[in-house]
Specification:
Helices cover 42% and strands 14% of the residues. It has five helices and five strands; from the N terminus they run E-H-E-E-H-H-H-E-H-E. The chain has helices spanning 6-9, 38-47, 50-60, 67-74, 91-103; strands at 2-5, 15-17, 29-30, 79-82, 108-109. The protein has a five-stranded parallel β-sheet with strand order 3-2-4-1-5. Helix 2 (38-47) packs antiparallel against helix 3 (50-60). The protein is globular and about 35 Å long.
């Protein structure tokens, strides 16, 4: 499993959107269970508080999911996509850390 963003890797096979919204014309898979709510997204856009976002994302999204089940549903060759460019604060890095913490599986950025 890897992570990336739409404009870089959206054309590749095995991509899965974990974003709330997708590019116009998107035909790939979506896994909305990992997508942050619009409320959480808009709160972050307003306050830019990364710590608060991480805490809320974990509490509202990840704590309600079984990491092994999610990993199996996505597939070990999935490329998890959202909008933010590499090395920019983004929930896909929180997801990657969650997989490592719970399953000892390293999910690297493409």
């Amino acid at each position: 499993m890897k992570t990336s963003y739409f404009s870089k890797s959206g054309h590749l096979e095995k991509v899965v959107s974990i974003a709330r919204g997708v590019p116009i014309g998107w035909k790939g898979r979506q896994y909305l269970n990992l997508a942050p709510s619009w409320e959480l997204i808009n709160q972050y856009k307003t306050d830019k508080n990364e710590s608060l976002y991480i805490n809320h994302y974990k509490h509202l999204v990840l704590d309600k999911l079984n990491p092994e089940k999610v990993y199996n549903e996505l597939g070990d060759d999935a490329i998890l996509l959202c909008w933010e460019k590499s090395n920019t604060f983004c929930h896909r890095y929180i997801v990657a850390e969650w997989f490592y913490k719970n399953l000892q599986i390293e999910v690297e950025e493409l």
